[in-house]
Design goal:
5-stranded mixed beta sheet; 4-stranded antiparallel beta sheet; alpha+beta; 53% helix; 424 residues; 10 helices
């Protein structure tokens, strides 16, 4: 909106100043005759003053037609009260202009006679009011035309915004405003597009949540019902123990799903305050890998020997890495490689496995919540949480095929920092 305000003020200033200057120039061109006449009066008065100063002006004054446009008169300096500065100008040989209600008085000093000659020139007629009215009308009409030309693109973009909002409210979730670099309200249009994208994503996530919950909870619930029914019917202690074990596993599955849903819902609230601080990513990886329970998978660390520091929130960065490690543990067969590499001003964190991998056409989809690949064993939430945390840290997670292992390779590229560079 700042651009809109600046544009409006600029247009108004340019229109008022520019049109005012143009109208003034036209007015002066139409009304330049009095200036020329005044100059001719000044020249005539100067010649008369020289003549009167050397000759007796009585005869000329007696025959001068004082009933005409120019009247002549003589007065002693003592009888002509003037301020000291004007008298000084007269004595210096300059003409002094005075004015009364009807005449323009041009005064000259006659040094030889110690008198003052006055030419009384009738004031020019009042300027034509019609010309002033026409020029004023042109000024305001030009101002209105300029403002209308400025307002037209704004009104057109506002109409497009209104139509897009109406279509979006009517159910067309793909309604967007095509961006324009010349739009006065480009920030408002971008905000609308972001809002529409956000709402569409939330509705899509809600549909996926409904399908995921109904699908993932239906199976363990059915097994629980069957387990309880069989538990009531059996009298064999060993069989009862097996049923109880299966019931416990189904409850654990449901608990895991609900925990994942709550975890992602918390991330989606958008009210989490991140506490950025310098983190040695190599040291963090070592701690997280040490906490992994023992299994038949071999985790190989290929970390750069130098300390690698990034600016991140320690809690959510650990959550991101844990989800990538958990995903690799679920799908790997034998080997997992965790590596870090310094690339100029960036640090590349890579976690690869020798599992089945993810087909290229599914890699962008599995980063969305509740979307699972063909070989998925989980709830479709782990990589979605990784994507959300990566977006908060303004980093990009890339899924590719691991060259050395043949499975999935997940990479996160962080901006490198120094331990003293703390960002709040």
């Amino acid at each position: 909106m700042r651009g809109l305000l600046i544009s409006l003020v600029s247009v108004v200033l340019v229109a008022v100043v520019g049109l005012g200057w143009l109208v003034t120039q036209v007015y002066n061109q139409l009304d330049n005759k009095p200036s020329q006449i005044d100059a001719s009066y000044m020249s005539m008065g100067s010649q008369l003053a020289k003549t009167f100063d050397t000759l007796d002006p009585a005869v000329l004054l007696a025959h001068w037609p004082n009933s005409g446009a120019i009247k002549l008169s003589l007065a002693n300096e003592d009888e002509f009260p003037l301020p000291a500065d004007l008298l000084a100008k007269l004595h210096a040989g300059e003409a002094v202009l005075l004015e009364d209600n009807q005449h323009l008085l041009i005064n000259y000093f006659l040094p030889n006679r110690n008198e003052i000659l006055t030419l009384a020139v009738a004031n020019p007629p009042v300027k034509d009011d019609k010309t002033s009215f026409i020029l004023t009308l042109i000024f305001y009409c030009g101002l209105i035309i300029i403002l209308v030309l400025w307002l037209y693109p704004l009104l057109r973009r506002l109409i497009l915004l209104q139509e897009s909002a109406r279509d979006f409210g009517a159910g067309d979730l793909n309604a967007r405003i095509a961006p324009s670099r010349w739009s006065y309200i480009c920030t408002l249009e971008a905000a609308f597009n972001q809002m529409a994208e956000r709402v569409q994503t939330l509705l899509a996530d809600n549909r996926l949540l409904s399908r995921a919950v109904s699908h993932d909870l239906k199976t363990p619930l059915a097994r629980l019902r069957f387990g309880f029914e069989m538990l009531e019917e059996t009298q064999d202690p060993q069989q009862s123990a097996r049923y109880l074990q299966r019931i416990g596993e189904d409850l654990s599955t449901m608990e895991s799903l609900i925990a994942r849903l709550l975890e992602y819902a918390k991330l989606e609230e958008g009210q989490i305050k991140l506490e950025f601080q310098p983190i040695n990513i190599n040291a963090l990886l070592l701690r997280l890998c040490e906490r992994i329970p023992e299994s038949d998978r071999q985790i190989q660390l290929q970390l750069e020997p130098a300390e690698l520091w990034i600016n991140a929130d320690s809690h959510y960065l650990a959550m991101l890495i844990n989800n990538l490690l958990t995903n690799a543990l679920h799908y790997s067969r034998q080997r997992i490689i965790v590596s870090t590499q310094r690339r100029h001003n960036y640090i590349d964190l890579n976690i690869s496995d020798d599992g089945p991998g993810i087909p290229h056409e599914e890699r962008r989809q599995v980063l969305k919540p509740f979307v699972r690949g063909q070989a998925s064993l989980g709830h479709g939430m782990g990589l979605a949480i990784v994507e959300r945390i990566a977006a908060w840290h303004k980093i990009k997670v890339t899924l590719t095929t691991s060259i050395p292992l043949g499975g999935l390779s997940a990479s996160a590229l962080f901006a490198a920092t120094e331990p003293s560079n703390v960002t709040n």
